[in-house]
Amino acid sequence: MSEGKIIVITAPSGSGKTTLVKRLLNAYPKLAFSVSACTRQPRPGEADGKDYYFYSEDRFKTLVDESAFVEWEMVYTGKYYGTLKSELQRIWDNGRVPLVDIDVKGAIAIQDAYPDASLTLFIQAPSLEILRQRLESRGTESVSSLEERISKAGFELSFATQFDRIIINDNLEAATTELLDTVQAFVQE
Asked: Tens digit of pLDDT for each residue in 125-164?
């Protein structure tokens, strides 16, 4: 596998990571979104191969057995996510830098696999209460899934200091500027 640099962004659900990732990709065409694999159902507007590679649980487990993933895990009960080695290689082969948008454990696994080539960024909401409000405003969570995400967020926050940079998303414009400046400096090294 021919390796290059890799940008890894993680955050608890509701931290504004998706918005920041979109802004980052628009600002830096050298970056390419690394499409993760998962076993959950697509949300409205999501497309297979663009937002995620949507697999059945059986197909995902077969890929695990074939060592097709850089990292993978069961993020929520019965819902597997992973980063395909072939996806990173596709991006590097095109002369670009993969931007991987994943959960905390996956981010740490990639950081461990590529310690000298990765920049790991943790996006954080100003508080768990604001995080809860953001998740509730989505209107996509049941009461139990909302509580599961809030509980997971508290756990994920305990790992924040293991990342190269923590970006607090309390002001979207300021967080965007900090993210763009940090990534630009790393990519140009």
From this structure: 776 777 777 677 766 677 777 777 777 777 888 888 999 9
**How many Å apart are CA 151 and CA 100, to the nearest integer?**
23
What are the structural domain ranges in the chain? Answer: 6-187
Q: Which of 57, 61, 56, 83 minimizes the C-alpha distance to 72?
A: 83
Q: How confident is the model at residue 1 (pLDDT cuts 50, 70, 90)?
A: very low
Spatial separation of the C-alpha atoms in residues 56 and 39, rounded to whole Å: 6
Percent of the chain with pLDDT over 90: 64
Indicate the pLDDT class of residue 34, thresholds 50, 70 and 90.
Answer: very high
* H-only helix segments in the chain: 17-27, 57-65, 85-93, 104-113, 128-138, 143-157, 172-187
Helix axes 128-138, 143-157, angle to 10 degrees: 150
At CB < 8 A and 24+ separation, what contacts does 126-132 make?
126/168, 126/169, 126/170, 128/153, 128/154, 128/157, 130/170, 131/12, 131/13, 131/14, 131/15, 132/14
Would you identify the CATH topology of the domain 6-187? Answer: Rossmann fold (3.40.50)
